[in-house]
Each structure stands twice: as C-alpha cells, then as structure tokens.
Design a protein that fits this description.
The structure is a homodimer of 243-residue chains. With 243 residues, chain A is of the alpha+beta class. In chain A, 52% of the residues lie in helices and 6% in strands. Chain A has a four-stranded mixed sheet, with helices on one face.
Chain lengths: 243, 243
C-alpha cells in the first residue's frame, strides 16, 4: 500500500502535518508534487486534480490531499483522521478518536490564524500589499489568540487521564506530532512571543522535545525531505510581526 | 436520549449548523444557553464548561459543543460527523461519510472566511475598529474566494453519481442542511454579490430551496427558535462590504 500525498513541493505548510505522520510511521509514500514531471508527478500532477473539469467524483478544494485505497481524501485533519488508525497513530477507542480529531481541528484553526497574521486581507495578495494590516493582526494574534490556544493545548495535556507524556490516550498519536509542528512553526515565526509564552506551558514544550527524539522522526527532521521553514509557508518569520 | 447543545443564545453562528441537523431530524434536544439560569442553564452553564479549571477531561476550545452519551464534543464539523449517523443524516458507507466530512470542513473554512470579512484584524475587536481593513478583505472575499467556494460546491453537486438532488450519496444529509445555511447566510450578508453569482450555480440554489421545503425544517425556520440573522453573528449585513 503506497500512499500518494499531494502538496506544494517547496513549503511545509499544511501538508507537513501529514508528512510527519507518514514519516513517523515509516509508511511507504510518495510526495507527488516533489517528483519529476517526466514521471507523471510534479506540481502539474497536483494541479490536474484541482481542475474543475477533471474526472474525480470527490475533487479536493485545495491541497493537501491523499490518494489511498482508491480514494482521494482532502482536508488535513480529515486525512489524519483517516490515516491515524492505519498508521498506528490513533487511539483505539472511538470516543478518543473523536477527541483526537477535535484537538486536531483546533490545531487547524490555530494554523489558519497563524497564516492570516501575514495575510489578513487576501491569500491571493502578497505580504507587501497588506503589511500595515498584518502588523495589527499579528499583534492581536500574539497578544490574545496565541496565549489562548497554547493554554488550551497545555490543558489538554494536563487532563489526559491515561498519560503524562502524550496528548490522547496512553500512546503517541498524530495529535502529538501536530503539536510538535505547531511549536516548531511558532518558534520559527514568533521567537520573541514564544520566548515569553513557553515557560507557562511546560507540558507542551516537553512534548515538542519528546516527539523530536522519536527515532524515525529525528531521522526525517535531519534529512533533505524536511523542507526548511521559509517565507512562502504558513509559519513565516517577519520580525516586524513578532514585536 | 436528550442532546444538550451549547452555543451563544442570540446568534445563529456556527451553532446553527448543529441546530439545523437536530431540527430536521426532530431530535430531542435542549439549547442550553437559551434556557433559564434558575434552571441551571443560560450562558453561565456554557461559560462554566469553558473555564480552564473545570472538571471536564475533554474541555472544548469554543462553542458550539454538544453533550451526548456522556461525552462532550466540540468543533462544528466534528459534532455533525458524530450526530449524522445517529440522526439518519449521514450516508451509510464509510467512504461517503469521510467525503461528507471533507465537504463540511470546507464549508467551515468558508464560514471562517465570511466571519473574517468583518473581523480581519481581531475577533476580540469591534467591527468599527477594523472597518477599512474589513472593506479590503470583503472585496477579496466576494471577488475571489466566494466564487471559488461556490464553484466547488456546485461541482460537488454536479458530480454526485448517486443523486441529482443531494450532495452526498442518494439521501439527504447534514451537508445539504449546511449548504442551505451557507446560501441563506450569504444572501443575508452579501445580497448584491450573491445576485451576481447565483445564476452560475443553479444546483446550489435549487438545493437551498429543496432543503427549505423539508417539513420539519420549514416549521423550524418559521418558528421563534430560528434566531434571525443579525450583526452579532457570522453572516452580517454591512452594505459597505457588499460593493
């Protein structure tokens, strides 16, 4: 069973949450848009599946999406909800799976708000076309929204009755990998804000380190497959937005 | 089995997507925050469950959330994913349920963007504190994002191999109810933009009408339980944002 992941080839973005799960599980997968066009891959292969006139009965709205078991599945949290049990990265219990998904959807909300700090007016415009607005939105984000999200994640970790190490149930899940990515991305984009916030969120900080040390994940993070953070992705470092 | 819905009592907002499913199914439910504080309900009952120091092991990040079967479930699309099969408003097939959820998550993205047309800078600020930014964001929304979303929904309807009437599979589902709500909300908030866009999306417009005529839903819409659209909710009518 080879999974086909479709996502932009030059950024971590939302696709990274799926890559982390596939990598941590040692799954057999192809990052299609990073392949060669001569081999039927590349960005062209991704774009073909987004065309309104295509043949797919379940056309995705936007990347990332996953081809698996003859299906085409979109929306990051939905992909992880599908993949989690197959990769051994989801709790066994149905109620816990629902809770894991709820936490993942809240992570998705935070990711959307982090994106909008540099694109508060329009995702199709350049950052330079919305810098004053971005400065205002980023101040609200780091001052109000980010503390609220981090406090909630810390609370999720504190209240897990089954583990003091992992977010959901007694074993690591895709939610832990995603919380690692959130911390990594926020540290890249907002180092000053995070320096101030991290001491109040020790469980989340420890989780980040615990995940980073998982052998397959550590190998991935040190490999060229891990695209560096950059100013085309979701988490961008613009010092003026990290006041 | 009585469901307890927790959502702000004076707006449709995100809670309305859950209300529509409960109402269409004729489910036994209580809209807790609309109840009386003397009876242990009201907004205070909602706020108690959002407090960081509360006793819940699965604390929600924000309303809406649902108490059912001894569980507390948050995130609108997740609530519907849970409720759909129980209310007879989800497809039977697992792959179709995953697809329904994917469409619902894309609806959630649209709802978030519709909200941000009047709150592009901060959800904790007043509209009056972000009017120039709102005008810019709304122009991008109605000019670029809204046509993209509506085109995708139309495409979802056009490609359903099992029905020319409903979005997913051969029977009505919570996705149809949510698409109804999207059209209703957009018509309220952006009547001029929608007037221009609707002719190109006949399936979506017909679906809105088809849903509105379902007997239990029609009774609900005509009842005082349906809170009118207003300028505190997600879909707000500010004529200057509908240029």
């Amino acid at each position: 069973m080879r999974y086909e992941l479709y996502y932009w080839p030059s950024i971590q973005g939302r696709g990274e949450f799926v890559r982390l799960a596939l990598e941590d599980a040692g799954a057999d997968y192809v990052d299609i848009a990073r392949g060669r066009e001569e081999d039927g891959m590349g960005v062209a292969a991704l774009m073909r599946l987004l065309e309104p006139g295509g043949a797919e009965s379940h056309p995705p709205f936007a990347p990332p999406f996953l081809r698996a078991e003859g299906r085409l599945i979109g929306q990051t949290a939905n992909i992880l909800h599908f993949l989690g049990p197959r990769l051994g990265l989801a709790p066994r219990d149905e109620a816990d799976r629902c809770w894991a998904h709820q936490v993942q959807l809240t992570i998705a909300d935070l990711v959307g708000e982090a994106h909008d700090t540099h694109h508060p007016i329009g995702s199709g415009l350049y950052y330079d076309e919305q810098r004053p607005e971005a400065a205002r939105r980023a101040a609200d984000f780091t001052g109000n929204r980010l503390p609220k999200y981090l406090g909630w994640f810390e609370n999720v970790l504190a209240r897990n009755p089954d583990s003091s190490e992992w977010a959901i149930g007694g074993e690591p899940s895709y939610v832990d990998l995603s919380l690692f990515q959130v911390v990594a991305g926020l540290r890249y984009a907002f180092p000053r804000a995070m320096e101030g916030l991290e001491p109040a969120h020790p469980r989340l900080v420890a989780l980040h380190q615990r995940v980073a040390r998982r052998p397959r994940l550590a190998a991935y993070l040190a490999s060229p497959r891990r695209i560096p953070f950059n100013e085309s992705g979701i988490f961008r470092h613009y010092p003026e937005l990290d006041a």
